[in-house]
Amino acid sequence: MSFYTSIIPRWDFSNLVDDFFFSFPADPKPPVSWAVVGEEDQSVVIQLAVAGFKEEDIKVWHENKTLRIVGDNTKREGLSTKFSCKFDRAWRLSDKLDVSKTEVKLEDGILAITIPIIKPEVKRTYFFGEE
Fold first, then answer.
1. How confident is the model at residue 125 (pLDDT cuts 50, 70, 90)?
2. CB within 8 A of 38, min separation 6: which ones?
């Protein structure tokens, strides 16, 4: 055995296609597949894809400058265990957001959370003359 064959691993490519296509779980669960955080019309908008969840399965709250979203549909009656799942997401929030006016809406499997941005007051100080 030469030096190079002893340090280079030997790969088995015979089952490469089978391993790729058939190594996924047989019972896929509906995950939170994506989250979009953006800014529009003087507010921050967070959107999550939560297919398979109802309003009673999702909890949204603010605590210590953190927005938490928890979903759990495992306790829902009549839902097969192979389609039940849980998720937990959290975002650190800025002091420039008015969390008391947060709006949450679930429509067509998309959870949209809108948090208004606090508009800073513009203070003018005249040092000479008045307007």
1. confident
2. 44, 45, 47
Q: Residue type at 9? A: P
Q: Is the dihedral of CA 55, 115, 37, 69 positive or negative?
A: negative
Which of 76-100 are b and which e, b meaning 16 or more Cβ less than 10 Å from the residue's Cβ? eeeeeeeebbebebebebeeebebe
* Beta-carbon count within 10 A of 117 CB: 14
Within 10 A of 50 (CB to CB), how many other CB atoms are there? 23
pLDDT digits (tens, 9 = 90+) for 5-37: 444 445 555 555 555 555 444 444 445 556 778
Kindly report the CA angle at 34 between 32 and 36, in degrees rounded to 5?
Answer: 130
Q: Is residue 76 part of a domain?
A: yes
CATH classification at residue 47: 2.60.40.790
Domain encompassing residue 103: 29-116
**pLDDT tens readout for residues 44-95:** 999 988 888 889 889 999 998 899 999 888 777 776 666 678 888 888 988 8
Which one-letter amino acid corresponds to residue 93? L
